[in-house]
């Protein structure tokens, strides 16, 4: 089983690095330039995993005009594989890509499930971004709404591709104290399982988001503090609605009463079934060990300060030898054990591996 999980992870990791630039350009549009395909500005929610992206998507998705489905993983899964699909101007190639997208485990979790024919009929631009838009518009229309949003944390690393296709996009970037993020992420069924890579990943997400922020004007990018959202939900949600040029709706604050399925992990589901929990603020003060705190602040203490969080330690350090021990000795067994327990991840990895192998073999 360990070997199988390693093979799946390795194959998918390598595939994500394979980018045939000319093939991708050919898939953007007949002229080689991506086209914006929606009338209304799409809403993208970015943030490090366990920063409150699910909470924010549920709040915004409860607006009577905005629909935000469960994570899609469209860009981080399929964008690196575009060269295998050929010219998306041809119907058979679009059908193949749509079929593969709808076959992934995350898309099977969407409720209601998408109809292949409805998606194909909704696509108005014959390129990858047009297919993304077609999928999200199909789901949005099924909700009886007019404007779509998307929440997949990994899509932050594809912001350039997304922005080129959707130049009118509006970004909601949620930020949470990295120490709380690390503790929550460590317990999740996915992601790093040691404080050293957890701190690195949190820092990396914020660094990439800061670059994106410089590319957008104030009307297109809004930072949302997770702690403020929990403490003053109505005030923050009203500010978000003003940013999105939408009327505030009290329904948004009742997101936890909705019966719409949201197939996240058990702990996240439990939290999302309640009003915003102020008790989720500063949990690291009680739960983080002295060693974990030292490691996190040594890696990301400066970033904590940049976002208004106060480090507890004065100039903590991690030596190169310690870093190697964390990366190569302490983290791998914890990660492997977590992967073995992640049954849903096995299913998702197997489905994606099947798609990838079929593409590579030209079947």
Automatic annotation (TrEMBL):
This is Sulfotransferase. InterPro entries: Gal/GlcNAc/GalNAc_ST, P-loop_NTPase. Gene3D superfamilies: P-loop containing nucleotide triphosphate hydrolases (3.40.50.300). Pfam families: Sulfotransfer_3 (PF13469). It comes from Adonisia turfae CCMR0081. GO terms for molecular function: N-acetylglucosamine 6-O-sulfotransferase activity. The lineage of its organism: Bacteria, Bacillati, Cyanobacteriota, Adonisia, Adonisia turfae. Keywords: Transferase. Signal peptide: none annotated. GO terms for biological process: N-acetylglucosamine metabolic process; sulfur compound metabolic process.
